Structure formats: C-alpha cells, structure tokens
Amino acid sequence: MGGQVTVDLSSDRIHLNNSAKIKGKLSHKNLVVDEGAQLEIESSTRKKITNNNKD
After folding, report:
1. Nearest partner of 42 among 17, 15, 6, 18, judged by Cα
2. Which tens digit of pLDDT belongs to each residue from 1-51?
3. Contact at 8 Å (CB) between 1 and 14?
4. pLDDT (tens digit, 9 = 90+) per residue, 7-19?
C-alpha cells in the first residue's frame, strides 16, 4: 500500500511501502513497513486459532 489514506483495515498481511502516509487502525497477522513510510495508526496483531481437539 502506498500513497496517503485514512483507513480501518483488517488483513492477514499488510505491506506499507516507502511512499505510504497512513492514518487509522490496522489489524493484521503480518505487518511489513518499508523505511520512509509515515504512520499515525493503532495496530493490533491477530493470532491464528487452531482447534486440535479430536472428539
């Protein structure tokens, strides 16, 4: 993602390139931020939930 945006975004993987100017909330499993990106965000990490119960 690049450019200037205001966003509430939920995704498994978010990659913010060096031209990104982001305001908002990000919910993710994996976040990549290139050097130079400008962020004003709330960030939360989602965890993978697995059920190993064998009924």
Report:
1. 6
2. 778 989 899 999 999 999 999 999 999 999 999 999 999 999 898 876 556
3. yes
4. 899 999 999 999 9
Per this entry, what is the length of the chain? 55
Has this prediction a pTM greater than 0.90? no
Q: Where are the domains of the chain?
A: 4-42
CA distance 48 to 50: 6
Q: Are 51 and 34 in contact (CB under 8 A)?
A: no
Name the residue among 18, 23, 15, 14 with its Cα closest to residue 46.
14
DSSP state, residue 7: E
